Amino acid sequence: MSVRWNPWHGCRKISEGCRHCYVYRQDARHGLASDEVRRTAAFDLPVRRSRDGRFRIPARETVYTCFTSDFLVEEADPWRAEAWEMIRLRHDLRFFFITKRIDRLAAALPPDWGDGFEHVAVGCTVENQTEADRRLPLFLEAPLRHRIIIGAPLLGPLDLTPYLTAAIEEVSVGGESGSDARLCDYDWVRAIRDQCVTAHVPFRFHQTGARLLKEGRLYRIPRDRQHEQARKAGIDYLP
What we know:
With 239 residues, this protein is α/β, with parallel strands linked by helices.
């Protein structure tokens, strides 16, 4: 079982991977402004208790954090210390967030962070080579216990070879979803997988995207089958 915790919602687009952001698409259906970052009613979800006094989220669950925003977005600076306090308290859970703002991590960490909280994993998103070369050196230098590279939405070929050190626990890639999705070439996916095999770094193909080019044929894949079809490719790698 896993839990989604969105302490705040909304974000600002900062790079090419944000162009067709799924949060913006979802909010547009309800007339909401996605670029307005706002604290949500679920802000205190990790520390909510049932009537018997037990935490509603039981121990050992994975909490996917801030998946309708960015945990490091500037507008959430006033709330982040309280969020860190809840994360610190629930050291019996595993928290995971992804970010395009790894350059802000140092300024956003709690004072007792040290080399990182053992129960917190961070994914750094890189959609193209430009962002990989800009973000990943910072990612490798950051004081983190658990690092995952997220190549999504994958918009071009990536050479991750310089960054596939023992500090990286996994590389996970996926295409772009939505009616305006840009193409994901299966050759890019396989090339990244080959890099991971050479470096003995786990690899996961988590989503095909809506438009997958494979062996010269363009596949249009419905949203509800994109994870399934990625799994069926059978190219995940675990050393």
